[in-house]
């Protein structure tokens, strides 16, 4: 987010946005009635045993929200997103400007109201209603212990094994379990934080500046407005290393559920990326691309998640093409397309979650709608829009103009598509938004396979040999001479991934072939690279190759990334009786080290609702 400061977002008259009226059914807050100008957190971290009671682990302190009333008639109540794990002890209203002699400070009553299984409303009542445009501050004294937004890890769950660790994960709607807030991507604010930690611990946050204040306190400031889900904290026994030009990454403990989380100025990433061969650099490129798409220009609600992820996939692959060439990028995109195909085969193409614009019903956790569609179908739609322009340089310029137009704001698809047609008036004149079969409305609102697929033929030089080799292994009597003539020792990781995807598609293979394949390619069957371990595990399960089932358990015990964990549980539960037993045994052994969301998803796979 190294663009311009927040003042620039108010410097020119802005176009009226469709998103200004957008609802967010996942927020209980009155985010349309008040503008949040700034948030300040003053927290002390205490590491102790889990659970309630004296001395238990938790974050204690205050959240101070600086607000402005937007309602012409004023307001007598403020609603914030909160969670049952978050205990608010006091609320104080500060009226008038800071330092003002006339500043009024008064305690105010508050209560909670039920909202959904993933949060509740914190209602603060003003004894005297606030006026239109009035600015005030609300100071909330609170404590949070065990909950879905703040993840506590015991020493044995960390890489160092000596000290505990705590981190927060905000996306999509988990930061309401970290601090009371407008927990919606529709609004943005600047924030600051003062965090006190025990001796020997370091705190880091997603902030543009930080400084030590004494031996145990860290002060952070984020000078650009960001949505609440991007405010992130981690505290632990952290070591740092300079690896190149400044872009801060925090390698998380193995239980971290994502490949990466694009917290601004401090991306959280899985240790699975440390493959030793730089082969998974595309994840880092993806998270850097979020600096523009997602962090600077944000989806206004989680039903428009493709605006964050489809553009980021497009930017990632543009950068990858320049760095690694078109053949490699098309190969990587082909593996993404295979994941989309796999997802749609499992979920059914007509599943409403396979639309770009997802209708999230009240009470449904946006995290439960997460899948490959916003990423890969979103990428196809952005690629289609580039294809309509027909000139890569022109489309690249358009993307820069798009970011500049909507920076520091949250938008809907209508805002983006109107800008696209204004930027390319010749396309608007041609009516490209309503070409039969490719209507923009169809792209957004019809589930199923993308109407347009980008041409991946530049990757044929890498894909064809992998396809031909997979064909050889699918034969009832594999031609070992032809197989050994293929020198896979020179293949890059994604070529091996693509080969394994093809093997998986052809599985189950004739009896004995998987055992022979594993013996022929120990580089694959004994790989430490997580992408290869995932595919090999799926192949083992699809072919019921029981002598290597231990490798699946071993991999699942080594990490907790959702993208790897859930497909393997799906494969186990879709496999033999022995595979289903393996699923239950593995989950019993690993549940304590998984993120709470991942635990819930695995439980749903093991015991589907209504079964």
Structural description of this entry:
This protein is 34% helix and 21% strand. It has 611 residues and is α+β, with helices and mostly antiparallel strands. Helix 2 runs antiparallel to helix 3 (326-347), helix 3 (326-347) crosses helix 9 (460-473) and helix 14 packs parallel to helix 16 (562-573). Monomer. Keywords: Aminopeptidase, Hydrolase, Metal-binding, Metalloprotease, Protease, Secreted, Zinc.
Evaluate the radius of gyration: 25 Å
Overall form: globular
Instruction: Count every beta strand, where a strand is a DSSP E run of 2 or more residues.
Output: 20
Helix content: 25-40%
Uncertain residue segments: 1-12
Number of discrete helical segments: 18
The average pLDDT value, as a whole number, equals 93
Gap between N and C termini: 46 Å
Largest sheet: 8 strands, mixed
What structural class do helix, strand and pairing data support? alpha+beta
Quote the beta fraction. 15-25%
**Order of strands, widest sheet:** 5-4-8-2-1-11-14-13
Reconstruct the topology from this structure.
Blueprint lengths: L33 E13 L11 E12 L5 E8 L3 E10 L8 E4 L2 E7 L2 E12 L4 E10 L5 E4 L11 E4 L20 E8 L5 E4 L3 E4 L4 E10 L6 E4 L12 E3 L8 E2 L5 E3 L11 H9 L7 E3 L6 H19 L1 H22 L25 H17 L2 H15 L2 E3 L1 H11 L1 H6 L9 H6 L14 H14 L6 H5 L8 H14 L6 H8 L1 H4 L4 H13 L6 H10 L3 H12 L3 H14 L5 H11 L5
Parallel strand pairs: 1-11, 16-18, 19-20
Antiparallel strand pairs: 1-2, 2-8, 3-7, 4-5, 4-8, 6-7, 9-10, 10-15, 11-14, 12-15, 13-14, 17-18
Helix pairs in contact: 1-2, 2-3, 2-4, 3-9, 3-11, 9-11, 11-14, 14-15, 14-16, 15-17, 16-17, 16-18
């Amino acid at each position: 987010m190294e663009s311009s400061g927040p003042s620039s977002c108010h410097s020119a008259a802005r176009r009226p946005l469709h998103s200004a009226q957008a609802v967010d059914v996942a927020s209980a807050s009155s985010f349309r009635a008040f503008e949040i100008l700034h948030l300040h957190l003053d927290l002390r971290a205490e590491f102790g045993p889990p659970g309630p009671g004296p001395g238990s682990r938790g974050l204690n302190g205050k959240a101070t929200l600086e607000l402005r009333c937007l309602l012409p008639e004023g307001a007598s109540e403020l609603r914030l997103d909160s969670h049952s794990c978050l205990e608010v002890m006091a609320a104080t209203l500060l009226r008038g400007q800071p330092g003002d002699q006339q500043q009024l400070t008064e305690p105010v009553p508050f209560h909670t109201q039920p909202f959904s299984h993933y949060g509740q409303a914190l209602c603060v009542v003003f004894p005297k209603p606030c006026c239109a445009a009035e600015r005030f501050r609300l100071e909330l004294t609170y404590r949070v212990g065990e909950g879905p937004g703040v993840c506590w890890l015991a020493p044995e769950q960390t890489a160092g094994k000596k000290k505990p660790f705590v981190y927060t994960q905000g996306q999509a709607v988990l930061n309401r379990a970290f601090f009371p807030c407008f927990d919606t991507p529709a609004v943005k604010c600047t924030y600051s934080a003062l965090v006190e930690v025990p001796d020997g611990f370091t705190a880091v946050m997603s902030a543009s500046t930080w400084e030590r204040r004494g031996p145990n306190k860290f002060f952070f400031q984020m000078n650009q407005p960001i949505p609440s889900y991007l405010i992130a904290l981690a505290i632990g026994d952290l070591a740092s290393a300079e690896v190149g030009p400044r872009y801060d990454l925090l390698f998380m403990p193995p239980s971290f559920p994502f490949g990466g989380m694009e917290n601004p100025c401090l991306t959280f990433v899985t240790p699975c990326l440390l493959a030793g061969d730089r082969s998974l650099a595309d994840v880092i490129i993806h998270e850097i691309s979020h600096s523009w798409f997602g962090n600077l220009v944000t989806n206004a609600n989680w039903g428009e998640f493709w605006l964050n992820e489809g553009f980021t996939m497009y930017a990632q692959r543009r950068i990858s093409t320049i760095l690694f060439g078109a053949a490699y990028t098309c190969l990587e995109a082909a593996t993404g397309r295979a994941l989309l195909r796999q997802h749609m085969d499992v979920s059914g193409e007509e599943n409403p979650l396979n639309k770009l614009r997802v209708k999230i019903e009240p009470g449904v956790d946006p995290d439960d709608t997460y899948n490959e569609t916003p990423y890969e179908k979103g990428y196809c739609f952005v690629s289609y829009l580039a294809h309509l322009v027909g000139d890569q340089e022109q489309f690249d310029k358009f993307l820069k103009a798009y970011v500049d137009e909507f920076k520091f704001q949250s938008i809907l698809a209508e805002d983006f598509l109107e800008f696209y047609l204004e930027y390319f008036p010749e396309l608007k004149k041609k009516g490209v938004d309503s070409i039969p079969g490719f209507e923009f409305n169809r792209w957004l609102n019809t589930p199923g396979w993308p109407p347009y697929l980008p041409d991946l033929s530049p990757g044929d030089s890498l894909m064809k040999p992998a396809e031909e080799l997979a064909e050889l292994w699918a034969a009832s009597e594999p031609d070992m001479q032809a197989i050994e003539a293929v020198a896979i020792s020179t293949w890059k990781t994604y070529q091996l991934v693509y080969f394994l995807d093809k093997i998986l598609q052809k599985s189950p293979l004739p009896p004995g072939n998987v055992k022979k394949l594993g013996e022929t390619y120990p580089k694959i069957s004994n790989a430490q690279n997580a992408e290869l371990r995932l595919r090999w595990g799926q192949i083992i399960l699809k072919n019921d190759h029981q002598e290597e089932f231990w490798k699946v358990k071993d991999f699942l015990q080594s990490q907790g990334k959702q993208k790897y964990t859930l497909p393997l549980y799906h494969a186990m539960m879709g496999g033999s009786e022995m595979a289903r037993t393996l699923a239950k045994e593995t989950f019993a052994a690993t549940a304590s080290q998984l993120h709470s969301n991942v635990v819930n998803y695995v439980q749903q796979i093991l015991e589907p609702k209504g079964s």
